[in-house]
Design a protein that fits this description.
Blueprint lengths: L1 H5 L5 E2 L2 E3 L2 E3 L6 E5 L6 E6 L3 H18 L4 H17 L1 H12 L3 H21 L6 E3 L6 E9 L2 E5 L7 H12 L3 E5 L5 H17 L7 E4 L3 H8 L6 E5 L2 H13 L3 E5 L4 E5 L5 H13 L9 E7 H15 L20 H16 L3 E4 L18 E4 L5 H4 L6 E7 L2 H9 L3 E2 L1 E5 L3 H8 L8 E4 L11 E2 L2 E2 L6 E2 L8 E9 L15
Parallel strand pairs: 1-5, 8-9, 8-11, 9-10, 11-12, 13-14, 13-19, 14-17, 16-17, 19-20
Antiparallel strand pairs: 2-3, 2-10, 4-5, 6-7, 7-24, 15-16, 18-22, 21-23
Helix pairs in contact: 3-5, 3-7, 4-5, 4-7, 5-6, 10-11
Length: 508
């Protein structure tokens, strides 16, 4: 495929990269990148060995010494050039995202655009790594704080957003003066290699140090090793809550810092004052986009009983028209799940739903692999359930939407918050009081709360992340850059005296 060659992807690829230099090892173990579209092998990638991991960390430490001395606006210029290179490769990289991940081409392109957007944001941020000056209680003293880079940052990313999440972390961390070691999902290694090449080529053209952008490819054992590595002061990990409960304690046990972006069980509340058509459109995009494999996918729709039947009828009409098929073909709205295990997990969840008293209103079945390119395709499921069902309390990474009726807004908010996860949330209402209540301290307990837009599709300008079992991390916009830096408080005495704080006298 010509677009793969333009991205530098070969039939066999090395999985270990220090800047622009790739490494293989004598006793190679190969990882096959398999497209969920048709189960074809796209290419093979060699796994990173233990010795290679050590070399990557050592070189990253050396690169940090040089990179942190580069003025932040100059680091921003490098990120700007990476953004320009991503613009040049947007179509090819977006197509590779769709091929390796299975999301529709529009979403693949949108993910690369998100990378471009975060580059633009980071360029501006490179001139605003600001601290604050405070008023000292002592005469002729200046009191202020400032921020310094941390060092090598470990990034562990998931398959569902194989490039965007890396960029959220990497571009912000880079302008802050850090160097990065990236472990992508073993299900999407080729998109990682393509991004590594794009970033390292820019560094090489600018005669910048190797080892600022680094890549290791392997299974969970490498992620576990990164979590326990004291040389990596920060680990940013995106994935399931189960993964976070493993990584988080490992990092905490060595008193390291972590940014955890974990599971979501996101809900939309639809009140009797909602614009129903807007609510339905947002719900369908949130529930079936990326085949329900987003951390921000809409899992629960909590609808006021007076409009419940109307909303249900409209959703059934829309679900019957959803086009399912090859995500690279125009007109397709839903592509495949990532693999057969994901299909099996969806079927198990639907089976549990029926056992617990729920009803499948539409869809949910695997689609005949004779008609579709692989056995990874399913029909999105529309279900009726109760919020307290154990299966509704879980996050199933598949296109399952649970419809749940409510009577009062207090009931709706209680159900909305009555799950262990706390990532994204939304309410559809044209009533100002309902909207403000949802956004208040007694409303949504999620890190993201929206009014009259869905749970998916966050802009990069706001901090992204959630509470409770979602992990509490924040990435991307706002002041999330502070997570990638160490804070330092400074006091300068420019007087000829040595006064102590709190008026303490200590005369020698």
């Amino acid at each position: 495929m010509s677009f793969l060659s333009r991205l530098g992807i070969e039939s066999v690829n090395n999985g270990t990269w220090i800047g622009s230099k790739s490494y293989s090892w004598e006793h190679r173990e190969y990882l096959k990148s398999i497209s969920p579209i048709d189960d074809s092998v796209i290419a093979e990638v060699s796994w990173s060995s233990d010795d290679q991991y050590e070399e990557v960390v050592e070189e990253a430490q050396k690169a940090f010494i040089a990179w942190r001395k580069v003025p932040a606006p100059q680091r921003g210029e490098i990120v700007r050039q990476i953004g320009e290179s991503l613009r040049k490769h947007k179509e090819d990289l977006g197509r590779l995202v769709s091929l390796e991940n299975g999301k529709i081409l529009q979403e693949g392109m949108g993910e690369v655009q998100e990378m471009i957007d975060i580059c633009d944001f980071a360029v501006g941020q490179s001139r605003q790594l600001y601290g604050f000056t405070m008023q000292s209680e002592r005469e002729e003293h200046r009191l202020y704080d400032q921020y310094h880079p941390l060092g090598p940052v470990g990034i562990i990313s998931a398959f569902n957003f194989p490039v965007a999440v890396w960029s959220w972390n990497t571009m912000i961390a880079a302008v802050c003066g850090n160097v990065m070691i990236w472990k992508p999902s073993e299900k999407t290694p080729l998109t990682a290699i393509a991004c590594q090449k794009i970033a390292s080529d820019v560094m090489k053209k600018n005669d910048m140090p190797e080892g600022v952008f680094n890549l290791v490819i392997g299974d969970a054992s490498i992620g576990d090793r990164m979590a326990g590595d004291t040389r990596l002061p920060l680990i940013s990990a995106t994935g399931s809550t189960r993964m976070g409960k493993s990584v988080g304690p490992r990092v905490a046990s060595r008193l390291g810092k972590s940014i955890l972006e974990l599971g979501g069980n996101n809900a939309i509340i639809v009140t009797e004052h909602a614009d129903i058509e807007m609510a339905v459109r947002a719900t369908v995009f949130g529930a079936v986009g990326t085949a329900g494999q987003r951390c921000t996918s809409t899992r629960r729709l909590i609808v006021q009983s007076s409009v419940f039947e109307k909303v249900k009828k409209r959703l059934l009409e829309v679900y019957e028209k959803i086009t399912i098929g090859n995500p690279l073909e125009e007109g397709t709205l839903v592509g495949p799940l990532i693999d057969r295990q994901a299909v099996e997990n969806m079927q198990n969840a639907l089976s549990e739903l029926k056992k617990q008293g729920g009803e499948i209103l539409y869809g949910g079945e695997p689609l005949d692999s004779g008609e579709y390119p692989s056995a990874n395709y399913v029909r999105p499921a529309l279900c009726q359930a109760k919020n307290e069902y154990p299966i509704v309390q879980e996050e199933t990474f598949a296109p399952i939407l649970y419809l749940i009726p409510y009577e009062t807004l207090d009931d709706a908010i209680a159900m909305h918050n009555g799950v262990d996860q706390g990532l994204s949330s939304a309410i559809f209402t044209l009533n100002l009081r309902e909207a403000e209540r949802f956004l208040s301290a007694t409303g949504s307990d999620c890190g993201i709360a929206n009014v009259n837009i869905g749970t998916s599709g966050a802009e990069i300008g706001g901090a992204f992340g959630g509470e409770k079992e979602t992990g509490g991390g924040r990435e991307s916009g706002s002041d999330a850059w502070k997570s990638y830096m160490r804070r330092q408080t400074n006091t300068i005495n420019w007087s000829t005296e040595m006064p102590l704080a709190q008026g303490i006298r200590f005369d020698v």
